[in-house]
Amino acid sequence: MVGTFMNLTFPQILDGQRIGEEMLVALRDKAESFLVRTGRKPKLALLRIGENPASALYMRRKCAVAEKIGIECTASVFPIGTPLESVEEKISQWNNSPSVDAIMVQAPLPSAEYQRSVFNAIDPKKDVDGFHPVNVGKLACEDSSGFVPCTPKGILRLLHAHDIPLAGRHVVIIGRSSIVGRPLGLLLQSRTVNATVTICHSRSQNLASITRAADILVVAAGRAKLVTADMVKNGIVVVDVGQNRDESGLLCGDVDFRSVAPRCMYITPVPGGVGPMTVAMLMENVIQACEHE
Ligand code: GUN
């Protein structure tokens, strides 16, 4: 698995589990200070529609981590087919509740329009996922007072934690979702990061010729083992956002780790790479939401 390139030994693992846990220690202190200051814990409200097992697992994990660091959770699960108005009513209750600091609705929702309406219903000051148009707009115009979506924020933190330079480097992102690819592109091309960004998607032609030009490749396509060794240059940094199941039901990323890792300077594992960073950044955003108190 380990290769050499210009006298360097690689790959090195981008250990999101370790970095995420270090961040949680600092966040636990902030949650404790909030409790001392206000007499109550920070509170995160989570909502899910339907029984998608992956969404249910992610939500349980987010609640468990929150409670471990002193953030209270309340969760609502609605069945598929719930009218939009009922979900909006629940969100409106949370928007108006002084004891709810933060709201997160687990994606995906039954349709794109439904999802858009639900995200739009969340008070932007409690929108810890950063999916409300006000927060999307703030990210687009580099106004740092908004919430930045958790996965892109976590990827940037993970790269910074390993001192991987980004200014002037070519980052190729596969995937243009509003949860990962699009906001990550905005963050990376901002005047504080200064990367050169290419976003590819399912209609991109000659994908391999684009990815081969990448210094850093972020893959958020939702397709198991889409990226193979022939698609990357030696010494690349690879960030794998994928959470798929392979033929034998094992968790695997969008990158064929076995073949790609020997070419990489750094690579994220799946699991243990981006996932724990996303959860840590959600907790950071909850603490940020408490600053409105
Ligand atoms: N589904 C996949 N990733 C995310 C995320 O970061 N936030 C929410 N709310 N749903 C998701």
Describe the structure.
The protein is of the alpha/beta class and 293 residues long. The chain folds into two domains: 39-125, Rossmann fold (3-Layer(aba) Sandwich), CATH 3.40.50.10860; 150-274, NAD(P)-binding Rossmann-like Domain (Rossmann fold), CATH 3.40.50.720. 40% of the residues lie in helices and 18% in strands. It has ten helices and 13 strands. The protein has helices spanning 16-38, 53-68, 84-96, 112-121, 133-140, 150-161, 181-188, 207-211, 257-260, 274-290; strands at 3-5, 8-10, 12-13, 43-49, 72-78, 102-105, 170-174, 196-200, 216-219, 236-240, 244-245, 251-252, 264-267. The strands form four sheets. Strands 3-13-10-9-7-8 form a six-stranded parallel β-sheet. Strands 5-4-6 form a three-stranded parallel β-sheet, sandwiched between helices. The longest helix has 23 residues, at 16-38. The radius of gyration is 19 Å and the shape is globular. The N and C termini lie far apart (50 Å). The mean pLDDT is 95. The structure holds guanine (GUN).
Low-pLDDT runs of 5+ residues are none
Number of DSSP E strands: 13
Radius of gyration: 19 Å
Largest sheet at a glance? 6 strands, parallel
Corresponding CATH superfamily of the largest domain: NAD(P)-binding Rossmann-like Domain
CATH class of the largest domain: Alpha Beta
Structural class: alpha/beta
- Mind telling me which CATH architecture of the largest domain this is? 3-Layer(aba) Sandwich
Helical amount: 25-40%
Q: Enumerate the strands of the largest sheet in spatial order, edge to edge or round the barrel.
A: 3-13-10-9-7-8
Number of domains: 2
Q: Between the first and last Cα atoms, what is the distance in angstroms?
A: 50 Å
SSE string: EEEHEHEHEHHHEHEHEEEEHEH
Which of globular, elongated, flat, extended, rod-shaped describes the shape?
globular
